Structure to design on (572 residues):
């Protein structure tokens, strides 16, 4: 081999080596940039921007309040009353006043509702009122048995499909009852002894959720987190006792995915109140 | 020059060239990755995740409701009344009911309030109730003149500092009145003829905001978006007439930046209501 061909050999290996290095670098660069680009604002809109520009899908989990809304039978549950103070020419109210029980229609139970020395509704911090929704659909079981009680097995079944529930979850039990909202007799579902029959959380699952998981609160699409036929209010005692809130008469839960919605829970801020009407928005990123 | 030194020269230039290329590549890589890393979830937490994990700063712009809350003088403004239905051993209410005017304490005026055939409170879409806050602090002018009226010049002054207001803004006028909340006489500030004196939006700025800018609503930290001494309710007529909502008696506006906060406005959902109590949360990303 002459000097020239030996030299070309060196140059060739050198350039080959350089070329390979450059190729490796380029590949790394492309991979890294491609990885980064999935977080690029121009290519995938920021979820926060989407929410506050009004471009994210929002579902209102709140029933409208009216004198026709279903209410817990008895004096304490006496219904919402609206008085028109002034009207528009069309007859629509331009000013009104109203009276209502705190625990009426879509509402929150503050922890003080069933546990002394716990927080009243105005004391719950805003940061405790936002969180990921965990939606456990037991509507088929509830259709077969209106006294159905949610169990920890339902929760672990959910987790087997969706993974362990996120920290700070708001756990919504979907019973199918919200679809009966416009049919008061079906919604309260009283027997001959005027005992109501609708599903709820068992004491067992209330203990499981408050002890074994990190939750902010629980909710249900009927009158109460305790079943209508429950002896006392065992779930109320446990979850309010653990400082957690309840959402009751939640609407439109069937529109939520099992996992992936996020809730904004906004209670009326009654000083020292045991609960009150709540507006609940679910936001669902793409 | 011998073959060896000539060869070394070639190798040297080759390696120098390679080294420079690699350096340029590395620099490019670092710059690009550094640019990307600002959007990297691990290095800069996603604002949406921060919000819903409860890690984002939230400010409650809502006064607590009680019989002691300031109210619009006269029969229509008669105050909030709370009745305890059941108590905890400590004496705290475990169940209650209440009555209130819709337009009392921190509340929303639905467009129907001052404009027939506009939306009632339950009809305002959730997407219209979230948006960036534009906070115009005219508290110094209002301290000097309790009848001060916001002008479009105040808005353009704000824009000269903060840039053109974002689309879908909720424009909050900060008058300083919220700090008088616990002093009812100072809050209503009546003269000898019982006319109230507090600042508000001029008709001129109401026209400017609804015609020249893209807003979702306006708000103020006193009784009314119209000044206490206004002749009629010109701002109400214009903004409700344009289908925009008002937030009145907004709390804690002084805690917000001029730009950078985002609002979640959650009204009580009264069927056909002209307005109602509202919970307002401001979220402030880092």
């Amino acid at each position: 081999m002459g000097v020239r061909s030996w030299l070309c050999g060196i140059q060739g290996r050198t350039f080959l080596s350089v070329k390979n290095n450059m190729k490796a670098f380029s590949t790394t660069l492309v991979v890294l940039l491609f990885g980064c680009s999935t977080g690029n604002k121009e290519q995938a809109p920021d979820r926060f921007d989407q929410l506050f520009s009004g471009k994210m899908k929002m579902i209102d989990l709140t029933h409208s309040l009216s004198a026709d809304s279903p209410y817990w039978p008895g004096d304490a549950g006496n219904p919402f009353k609206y008085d028109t103070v002034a009207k528009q020419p069309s007859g629509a109210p331009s000013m009104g006043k109203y009276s209502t029980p705190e625990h009426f229609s879509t509402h929150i139970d503050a922890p003080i509702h069933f546990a002394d020395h716990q927080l009243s509704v105005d004391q719950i911090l805003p940061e405790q009122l936002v969180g990921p929704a965990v939606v456990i659909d037991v509507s088929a079981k509830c259709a077969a048995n209106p006294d159905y009680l949610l169990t920890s097995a339902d929760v672990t079944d959910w987790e087997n499909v969706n993974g362990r529930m996120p920290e700070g979850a708001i756990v919504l039990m979907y019973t199918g009852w919200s679809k009966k909202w416009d049919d008061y007799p079906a919604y309260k579902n009283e027997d001959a002894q005027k005992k109501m029959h609708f599903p709820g959380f068992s004491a067992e699952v209330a203990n499981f959720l408050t002890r074994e998981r990190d939750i902010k609160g629980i909710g249900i699409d009927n009158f109460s987190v305790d079943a209508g036929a429950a002896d006392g209010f065992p779930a109320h005692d446990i979850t309010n006792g653990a400082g957690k809130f309840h959402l009751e008469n939640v609407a439109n839960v069937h529109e939520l995915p099992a996992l992936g919605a996020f809730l904004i829970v906004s209670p009326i801020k009654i000083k020292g109140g045991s609960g009150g009407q709540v507006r609940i928005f679910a936001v669902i990123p793409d």
Summary: The longest strand of chain B covers residues 275-284. Chain B has a mean pLDDT of 88. Chain B is about 30% helix and 25% strand.
